[in-house]
Write a structure and sequence with these properties.
Length: 426
């Protein structure tokens, strides 16, 4: 038994994985796998580049088809062993039991037999044909199956090559997109940093000009106040005197009072006011541009379920200060839960805080109009009502998922149901 297994192992080693027969002119690829030269050449027909091993799929070079002489020698040894084995078991086409030539083939037992076996009890009722006819018939069947299998293998090989190329194209596209996104955001960051630097520099210049005007005004005003104080002290001192002493140099004192002209504090020049106005306009334009850019990006949204289990979604805008919705009509409730355009939304947050969302004029969004503590006794945190209409009302689910953040939404843990903000459907 050990010898038979050894022979079987040798037979497997000298069998081509493509045609499943003994190697014919065996060649070794760069990856180390062995094939018949004709088999591997046929597999590579129609492909000018990207030659791959039919077994391990490793890329190889077609020109490197080296004849494996050692494997060819082993193949001859295996053939000799098979011949010797056949002789030991009635080889050379001889029946091992009757020592007669194996000229017949039993269809039922699928084995060659001699004329004596044909007349025996074991094969008497079986269908028997000549060995040559059976061999020719089965070779045709084998060739048919081999043709089908080879076609399937070729089809899979082509699909594999196409799939690899397509995946590589997709990977190249994603890599290109990734590089473009990184480059665009890097340029955007550089642009924003440069704009920030320029705006801050302009603001710093305006600060210095305003401080300069302020210092000049303070200095001038201090000088004027000092002169006024001296003149007031002198006149008060004069007023305390009597008669001729009071009248001495009175003309000079009055003349100084009449000639004294005190300047008003330095005001901001029109040029500086224009610079401040221009800077404000630049800031407003920048804020508007950033707002538009933010509008193009994905927004946070609030997702809740009503008592019927329907999933409702509201988009959160303006740093969590507004909600607008729904994101998709498919997530909206049925018409029984829709409310009119002038309706508001009141939500009771955990901790007895009542948040009232009012509709923004001319839009389909709600903003927090009032945030106050509900009067005692506070209703249950799971209640929600729509105003001004007292109905419909429903109960919030026990679990509420929220991906938004903001001052209004951070007031307390949310117990909020999102409602479609559309006109009532009749």
């Amino acid at each position: 038994m050990a010898a038979e297994k050894l022979v079987e192992s040798l037979q497997e080693e000298v069998t081509c994985p493509i045609c499943l027969e003994y190697f014919t002119e065996p060649v070794t690829l760069e990856c180390g796998d062995n094939f018949c030269r004709a088999c591997v050449t046929q597999c590579w027909q129609g492909s000018d580049t990207d030659f791959s091993c039919p077994q391990c799929r490793e890329t190889v070079q077609q020109r490197n088809l080296k004849l494996n002489r050692q494997l060819a020698n082993v193949l001859e040894i295996v053939k000799q062993l098979n011949l010797h084995e056949a002789k030991g078991a009635g080889g050379d086409g001889v029946c091992g039991e009757h020592q007669e030539p194996l000229k017949l083939f039993c269809e039922e037992d699928q084995t060659p037999i001699c004329v004596v076996c044909d007349r025996s009890q074991a094969h008497r009722a079986h269908t028997v044909v000549l060995v040559e006819e059976a061999a020719q018939e089965y070779k045709k069947k084998f060739q048919t199956h081999l043709k089908t299998l080879r076609k399937e293998r070729e089809k899979l090989l082509r699909l594999n090559v196409i799939g690899k190329k397509r995946i590589q194209e997709y990977l190249k596209q994603t890599q290109t997109k990734r590089q473009k996104i990184v480059s665009e955001f890097q340029q955007l960051r550089q642009f924003l940093e440069e704009q920030e630097r320029l705006l801050l520099a302009q603001l710093e210049k305006l600060d210095k000009e305003v401080v300069k005007i302020q210092n000049e005004s303070i200095t001038k005003c201090s000088e004027e106040i000092s002169c006024l104080s001296e003149l007031i002290i002198e006149m008060e001192w004069k007023c305390q005197k009597q008669g001729s002493e009071f009248l001495q140099d009175v003309r000079s004192t009055l003349s100084r009072c009449e000639k004294a002209k005190f300047q008003q504090p330095v005001e901001i020049s029109p040029e500086l006011e224009k610079s401040l106005s221009d800077f404000s306009q630049k800031t407003i334009a920048l804020m508007e541009t950033l707002r538009k850019v933010k509008g193009l990006l994905p927004r946070p949204w609030l997702c809740c379920r009503d008592a019927t289990g329907r999933t409702l979604s509201l988009a959160v805008a303006d740093a969590g200060e507004k909600v607008a919705g729904p994101i998709s009509p498919a997530s909206a409730p049925t018409s029984g839960l829709w409310f009119a355009a002038n309706s508001g939304l009141q939500c009771l947050l955990a901790g007895g805080v009542l948040l009232h969302w009012a509709r923004c004029p001319g839009s389909s969004s709600l903003s927090p109009a009032a945030l106050r503590t509900a009067p005692a006794p506070a209703p249950a945190p799971a209640s929600l009502c729509l105003s001004p209409s007292p109905s419909p009302s429903f109960t919030l689910p026990q679990r509420c998922c929220c991906s938004a953040s903001g001052a209004a939404l951070r007031a307390a843990p949310l117990a909020l149901a999102a409602v479609a903000l559309h006109p009532a459907q009749r």
